[in-house]
Design goal:
The protein has 8 helices and 17 strands. It is α/β, with parallel strands linked by helices and 255 residues long. A hairpin with a 4-residue loop joins strand 13 and strand 14. Helix 1 crosses helix 5.
Amino acid sequence: MNILIVEDELHAARQLSDIIRQCRPDYHIDAILESVEGTVRYFQDSHLPDLLFLDIHLSDGQSFEIFDAVEISTPVIFTTAWDEYAIRAFDCNSVDYLLKPVNAERMEKALVKYEKHWRGHQPVPAAQILQELKQMLLPVRTYRENFLVPFRDQLLPVPVKDFAWFELRNGRVTGTKFDKTLLVLEERSVDDLMQQVDPRYFYRANRQFLVNRNAVRSVAQHFKGKLMAHLHPHSQEPVIISREKAQDFRKWISC
């Protein structure tokens, strides 16, 4: 198995080479090049590596120019610190797309993908690759860290993590803090709150309650496959999880 590395940063090239050898000691690194011109000349001399690791930004241009100059059928794993070129990269025989700094775990996944789909002559459908890439490059969603709570003639910021649960009470959305303080929020519904808080920490137990993971002290079996969550501080109304949501709640609370 012959590999070509194209990387214009010496340290990055050495690191990439070391990780490849760590993951696949039997793979042979045929050459390490640093430019568009040198790589074009390499392929023009009829060198055909089995796999190409290719940085996008090179010393004399962008690596996409290589594909404009010579026809390359060799599968490619792109490596770069910039994800803005990702979609274009996947038009160029790409097996995978590694963001720097590359680690051994991510390298292993890329090599397994190559061995499964390229060496076995089962190319990954382009639509599937693009979909996977788009998911990878989706912006990380951010959630609210504070609520502005009306208090007398002011709006006071209260950290979301301070709330043990949110509750629809008498047509109003309220929040109960861990210190048992009850606050009325400006949000119109629990549905609105669900879109604003991190689902890793808050769970919609039912239409009335949105509970903080840290407030759940125990979970008991209830009638007909339902669950009952016991909260701290204690809630006046029982927090019942339906039979349909019971399994999902168990999974969430155990993560």
